[in-house]
Structure formats: C-alpha cells, structure tokens
Design a protein that fits this description.
The complex is a heterodimer of chains A (119) and B (647). Chain A is mainly beta and 119 residues long. Chain A is built from 1 helix and 12 strands; from the N terminus they run E-E-E-E-E-E-E-E-E-E-E-E-H. Chain A has one helix spanning 114-117, and strands at 5-10, 19-23, 30-31, 37-42, 49-50, 62-66, 72-76, 83-85, 88-89, 94-96, 101-104, 107-111. In chain A, strands 2-1-12-11-8-9 form a 6-stranded antiparallel sheet, with no helix packed on it. In chain A, strands 3, 4, 5, 6, 7 and 10 form a 6-stranded mixed sheet that branches. In chain B, 39% of the residues lie in helices and 17% in strands. In chain B, the strands form 5 sheets. A 6-stranded mixed sheet of chain B has the order 1-2-3-4-6-5, with helices on both faces. In chain B, strand 10, helix 14 (340-343) and strand 11 (351-363) form a beta-alpha-beta unit. The chains are: A mainly beta (119), B alpha+beta (647).
C-alpha cells in the first residue's frame, strides 16, 4: 500500500505561510481498516495539525479524512467556534477540494495541490 | 534621512500588529503600514485604481480580526510568509535597502497572503495594481504618520518634527518636562518614550539645538567622552537626528544605572530642595567618579590665559560689514589669534579687514555671522571672536555668497561698531553700579573686603598672563544645568558640546561661578550692600577660614558648598597651594556669567564682584614672599613646563 501524504499550508496568523508535511509513514494520523486516513486538527500539541496560538481553536477541533481514493472530507469535531469551508459552517462531513481554504477558529488553512507543494 | 525606509515601514507594521494584539509581523501588517504612508506609492496606486486606502485597511483588519491581549512570545516575530515577502523585496532592491515599491511589488507577487485575498474580494485586479506600481513615475513624497507626542512643553513645528524623527520607532512619546537648558538657546527635555506595545522605556534626555552644534557635540563626545565615562552616567545613544532640510537637530542621552520611576532633575532644580550638605556630597561624588579618567589626568600644561579663556568673554569686536570695494587697502588687517583682540587698541569707527576667520555660527534672523579662529571647539580655536553684523547671510545673495558653519572666510571688510570693552561696559551698566566704571579701583563697601580692582580695566591684563596648570579631559561647560541628579543621588553629566582637552580647573571654576550665580545669589539680600556682604564671606573662604560654617545666614550656608568645590580644585592645582591659577579662571568665568541675561540683576552683580574679588586675589603677594622675582620672568628660555611655575 502506498504511503498517504498531505501538505497543509497555514494561511493566516503567526504561522502564516508555514507548510505542514503529513505522512502516514512517519506516524501522522490514524489509518482505518477501510483505508481512510484520519487527521486530527486542534489546539493541543498531540493533534496531527496543531494550532497552538489560536484561542478560538478547540483542543480537538476538526477531523480531516482522506479516503483510499484520495478524496478529502472535512468534519467538525464538536468545536466551540466552528469549522468553516469558505464562509459556510461545516455541519456534517463535507468534501474538500485541494487548494480550497478552510478555517478553524480564526486560522485559515489550505491543503496544497501537488503543484503548490512541489515548490 | 527624511525618506521612508524599510525600518520605518517595519515600525509601522509593529504598531499595527500591537494595536490588533497580534504581536507578530505578517504580510497584512506590512501592507497596512504601506497604506499609512500618506503621499506614498501604495496610496497612489490604490487610489489610481479607485480603492480607498482606509477601506482596504479596514477590510484587512476585519478579515484578520483582533486577538485577545495575551502574548505567546517576546518581540514581533515575522511569519514565514512575511519572511518570504521581505526576502523577495530585498531581491528586487539589489544592493540597496528595499524601498516602498520593492515591498509593495513583493507583496503583490507573493500573491497568496490575506492581503491578496482581501484585495481580490474587493474586486481589485492584482496584475493591474502591480503594473501601476512598477511603472509609477510621478514624484511621491511619502510621510509616515506621526507619533503622538504628549506633554505640556511648548515646542515649535521644527522642534516637533525632529522629535518625531528621533522617536519614530515608538508608539508614543511623553514629554515629562523641560530641563532648562541655560543660556545657549538649546532645548533640553526629559522624555519618556513608550513602545508600540505599551512598554515604557527609561526616560532619556533630549537636546534640540542648531544642527551643527548637534553634530559637533556628537564628535566631541566620540573624541573625548565616550571612552572615559564611569559606569553610571548619561551616554549619547543613536546617531544625532539631523534632517537635511532643517536648521536644527536632536541628540539623545540615556542613563546607565537605575532610574526607577523617579526622573532625574538637574542640579539647578536639585539645589532648590536640598541642604548644602547634600549638594556638597553630590559634587564630591561627581568628582570622584569622573576624576580618574578626566580631571586627575594631570598633564603639565603651560599656557597663555587667553588660549583657554578668551572665548568665554564677549566678542573682541562687533563689526558692521562693508562692501568689499570700500576696503581699498585701508584698515587694519586682522588675522585670527593675533594679539589685537587683547590689546584694546582697535577703536569703534575703524575699518578692519578680517582675513581667514572661520564661521562659528550663522544667525539668519539678525543677519549676523559669528567668527572665530577656527571651527574646532578647542578653546584656542574659539578665540579671536568677532561678530559681523549686517551681512546678508540668508540664502544666495547677488554675489553668490552663502555662509555656512565651519567655513573659512577669505576676507570680510567692516567698520568696528563695538569692542569687547564696550560690550563689557554696557553689561555692567545694566547692573546700575554705584561706582565709577572707568576708575581703576572699586571703593570698598565692606570693612572685611578692601577696595577691589575694576575687572573692566583688568580683563585684558588677565588674558595676557601665563598659567602653569594641568591639562586633562574637561567638560567645558560645567554649569548646574548640565549636571543631572538621579533619585539615588547619582550625578550624571550631559551636554558634551564643549568637551575637550583643556585647562583642568576650567570646569571647577565654572561650577563655582555657576553655583554663585544660580544658587548662592538666591540668598543674597537685595542691593549692592547684600552683594558686598556675600563677598565678605567669599573672601573668608579665599583666606581658608571657617566663617561660613558658623554663620547661620542662608547665604553663608549656601556658600559652604563652595568649600567642597575648593577642596576639589586644590587637588587639581598645577602647583600646590598656588591659587592664582584658579582665581584667574574664576574671574573670567564670573565675567561670562555676568552676561547671562536669564539671571537676576542681583546674581549678575554678584558675578561681577566675584570677578573683582578674584582679580584682587591674583594681585596679592604670593605666599613665597612679596617682592620676589617670579620664576618665569627669569626662565623664559628654559623648559617651563618642567618648572611649572606660575606667573
């Protein structure tokens, strides 16, 4: 089975411009039996994508899943301030395009396309 | 100096970031800073494309939001994206420091920041903005928004502008109060700068003065002061702020040592609220901390008095400028450092030709040039002072002549309107003397003080005398306004404009004269009788008596401080217990203070009579016995510095 990988760029705040490289092989995320790779986003250090300086981000804020087909699904994990795709609040798991901006608290993030991350 | 550089933009960005409680520098803060440069490229480009800079700012702030006032790190770290943008701007700038345009293009080209998203949302065409920015050719004059300056010190627009430039890195500036600067026209302020994040920095002393004076002071400081300061004292920081298009500039002194919350006061204020004993302790402390590197250097020095002291007196001549052709070979040709300035032989009405003098000061308001031997602050270079009036100094005149400070003037022809003797005479006349100013002696008005020599008659004789003393680093203007006292009683010096290698006792005679005029004079009963009473007490100090310690009169109490100055001076005498050296200095410096218009008539009367008493001291038979042939008279060809004999 090939290694699951993602590059996420922070698009605002003190880490604006930072790229977070995630790879299953390096122990990021959780690989389910059905081949879905789950990543936890939140304020805590233990999160796969940790956003420590945004007080509007909950400790465990959102989950990003990548199916074995490579589809990305974003869902809120019961956060206080919500998860947004563009301007729409994410109420149920929602399909996320690469390159699309989404927001936790006041931190904007973006899953990089292969073009972006090759830089 | 006036143009906006990257540092200024970063400062504005920090201010913006602090306002939003972000405490980091992102591209959004950099861009907001650019939109705040009124008259700048960013504003011009946005407006050209129909975007209001204010609305752009508002939209960016709306998008990023304001954070809670809590910090997770010290300082203002740059975001990875801001670093990328700044590096790009540096690449565009090449060998130069990045300009506003470089930074604007970098932000537009990076293309992925909050700024770009907001501009896109507003319907802006980023590519078009970039084209406009890259091709903009109309002249621009960007100006940073002003730092708020508070405090009730009255300053003119020019002084405010220099302060703005000096503190452009700060969020606001509080003018605590003015430390009165004395006679020179400089403004000395105590200023507390407050950083953009609200942190209050330690107070600094700011001096606003003529641009050349400011530049000179910095040079003096670097040359004579910097390496010789004790660990706790005022230090000059930063380069002087001297805008190209301004006639003034500013200097900043900070204090090493503990300031706490109480701000320093100058000695002039300190003496109002403290006992003579405290003032004495302070002066002793000042000497002890500076002396090893300054006054106790003790390099034997033999000099003609005029070399060190002529410049403290009024100009030797005041001359009304004449057109060159009027010279026509007639008139005295005067060169700098000639004896003409001390002989009193040149009379009003005579024509003089001034050759090779250097401009010390250009007074545009009065069309007056102040000339002296040279431009360096060494005392000898400031000798041969001449004031030339009625000369067109403003702008370029028909002859194409513009005078600037430090310039050597080939030739100026003029008619003498006043001599130093006239100027001194007029100054004393203002004091309403009750004795004949043209007589050689002043009749005694107190039984403990005999008749005294008239300083107006004696001054030129004094200048011609020789002194064997010491040479050391000196402050050169040690009056009460230039000594600052911290809350713990530390003494600091400020104003190093005249710091130099010079006669060691200059500073201490200056301090004594200043104490007499600015402190003791407050306790002198009005009228000439009060002056003579004080003089009698001073004469007792001269004789080494303890009378002032027993007398309960306030003036006597104040005079006890002088015994401390004398104790210090004793350590600096060229020859043990030969006080002539000191009294000559004191007489001439007292004459200088007699002319300080800011002082009361009583204080100036006291100054004049102190000069008279001091001259009398120098005329007394030496302690080695009267009628003695003084050593220098018979040793003129010998190595005088080795003998170090006075007179």
């Amino acid at each position: 089975m090939t290694d699951a990988e993602l590059v996420i760029m922070v698009m605002s705040g003190p880490d604006d411009g930072q790229q977070i490289h995630l790879s299953q092989r390096h122990g990021d995320g959780y690989m389910g039996a059905d081949g879905t790779w789950s990543l936890v986003l939140g304020r805590r250090d233990e999160c796969d994508i940790s956003i420590p300086f945004d007080t509007q981000v909950s400790r465990q804020h959102a989950i990003l899943r990548m199916t074995s087909e490579g589809e990305l699904w974003l869902s809120d994990a019961g956060s206080l301030n919500g998860t947004f795709l563009g301007k729409t609040r994410v109420e149920k798991p929602t399909l996320l395009e690469r390159g699309e901006l989404f927001r936790l608290g006041r931190t904007w993030l973006r899953v990089q396309t292969d073009d972006d991350s090759s830089e | 100096m006036d143009t906006i550089g990257l540092q200024d933009i970063l400062t504005l960005a920090r201010q913006e970031s602090a306002k939003l409680h972000h405490y980091f520098i992102g591209v959004e803060h950099l861009f907001i800073a650019l939109t705040q440069l009124s008259g700048g490229l960013t504003v011009a480009v946005l407006e050209y494309h129909g975007l209001s800079p204010r609305f752009v700012r508002y939209s960016i702030r709306e998008s990023v939001g304001r954070y809670e006032d809590r910090r997770y790190w010290p300082g203002f770290p740059e975001t990875p994206r801001a670093i990328e943008v700044l590096n790009l701007a540096k690449r565009y700038a090449g060998i130069h420091t990045p300009s506003e345009r470089d930074l604007l293009l970098a932000i537009l080209d990076e293309g992925d920041s909050v700024v770009i998203r907001v501009l896109n949302e507003m319907g802006a065409n980023i590519a078009a903005l970039r084209r406009t920015a890259a091709n903009w050719t109309s002249p621009l004059r960007p100006q940073a928004p002003e730092v708020p300056i508070q405090g009730d010190v009255q300053l003119d627009a020019e002084q405010m502008r220099v302060l703005q430039l000096m503190f452009r890195d700060y969020g606001q500036v509080h003018l605590v109060r003015e430390l009165d600067g004395g006679y020179s026209g400089a403004r000395v302020l105590l200023v507390r700068p407050i950083r953009v994040d609200g942190h209050k920095d330690a107070p600094v002393v700011v001096k606003l003065d003529d641009r050349y004076a400011v530049l000179y002071e910095r040079r003096r400081y670097d040359l004579h002061v910097k390496g010789t300061l004790p660990s706790t004292t005022a230090r000059l920081v930063d380069s002087p702020t001297v805008p190209d298009d301004s006639s003034i500039g500013g200097l900043k002194y900070t204090f090493v040592g503990r300031i706490e919350d109480t701000e320093p006061v100058n000695l002039r204020e300190f003496v109002s609220h403290h006992e003579p004993e405290d003032i004495s302790d302070l002066i002793r402390g000042l000497f002890d901390s500076f002396a090893p590197a300054w006054w106790l250097q003790r390099k034997p020095y033999r000099f003609g008095v005029w070399r060190e002291y002529e410049h403290v007196l009024p100009p030797a001549l005041v001359v009304e400028a004449l057109p060159d052709e009027k010279a026509d070979g007639a008139g005295h040709v005067l060169n700098p450092l000639g004896a003409w300035s001390r002989t009193g032989r040149i009379m009003p009405g005579e024509i003089v030709v001034l050759n090779g003098f250097t401009v010390q000061k250009v007074d545009m308001k009065r069309n007056t040039l102040h000339l002296a031997a040279g431009s360096q602050p060494e005392a000898i270079n400031r000798s041969s002072k001449v004031e030339v009036r009625g000369i067109e100094v403003r702008g370029v005149d028909t002859e194409g002549t513009v005078f600037y400070r430090g310039e050597m003037v080939d030739q100026i022809v003029g008619r003498v309107v006043r001599t130093r003797d006239d100027l001194l005479l007029r100054a004393v006349q203002e004091l309403e003397p009750d004795f004949d100013l043209r007589a050689s002696r002043i009749p005694s008005r107190h039984e403990a003080v005999g008749e005294l020599p008239n300083p107006l008659i004696e001054v030129n004789v004094l200048l011609e005398r020789q002194i064997s003393g010491y040479l050391s680093t000196i402050h050169g203007d040690l009056h009460l306004g230039n000594i600052l006292v911290g809350p713990r009683g530390d003494a600091w010096l400020i104003d190093f404009a005249w710091a130099r290698e010079g006669h060691t006792l200059f500073d201490w005679a200056m301090l004594e004269a200043s104490l007499l005029v600015e402190y003791v004079a407050r306790f002198v009963p009005p009228g000439w009788a009060g002056v003579w009473g004080t003089l009698a007490l001073l004469a007792s100090i001269n004789r080494g008596e303890d009378r002032v310690f027993e007398d309960k009169h306030p003036a006597a109490r104040a005079l006890t401080v002088l015994t401390t100055v004398r104790a210090v001076a004793r350590e600096c005498l060229g020859i043990q217990e030969r006080w002539n050296e000191y009294y000559i200095a004191l007489a001439l410096l007292a004459l200088r203070l007699m002319d300080w218009q800011s002082e009361s008539v009583e204080a100036r009367r006291l100054a004049f009579m102190v000069a008279a008493l001091s001259i009398a001291q120098t005329q007394m038979p030496s302690p080695m016995g009267s009628g003695e042939v003084t050593w220098t008279d018979i040793t003129t060809d010998m190595d005088q510095t080795e003998l170090r004999m006075d007179d």
